[in-house]
Amino acid sequence: SAKANKDIQKVDPYVEKGLAESIMTTVVLPHVKTAREGGGLIAEIVKKQGAAEGNIVTIADKTGVWYMEILSGHQYVAIKYPDDKYS
């Protein structure tokens, strides 16, 4: 979970029935085969339906690790970790 500041919430507030941490795996995992597809599906849902809360999500598979931050109703950032980096 993550918490956004008040300024971004004024501009792009969370959506009551948007994607929540409690249902993320149920909504995403049955429909993807790779970490990249998982991040892409989460991004699509956040853009179209919104996020119910802030989240920091890490999705990994044998080809790499994807890191995503969702800190407003419809905006996110996602990166693929370089193969030689970790945190």
Q: What does this molecule look like?
A:
- With 87 residues, the protein is α+β, with helices and mostly antiparallel strands.
- Helix content is 33%, strand content 22%.
- It contains three helices and three strands.
- The longest helix has 15 residues, at 35-49.
- The chain is globular.
- The model has no long low-confidence stretch (mean pLDDT 94).
Q: How is the biggest beta sheet arranged?
A: 3 strands, antiparallel
SSE string: HHHEEE
Strand order of the largest sheet: 1-2-3
On the 0 to 100 scale, the average pLDDT is 94
Low-confidence stretches: none
Provide a brief overview of the structure.
This protein has 87 residues and is of the alpha+beta class. The protein has three helices and three strands; from the N terminus they run αααβββ. Helices cover 33% and strands 22% of the residues.
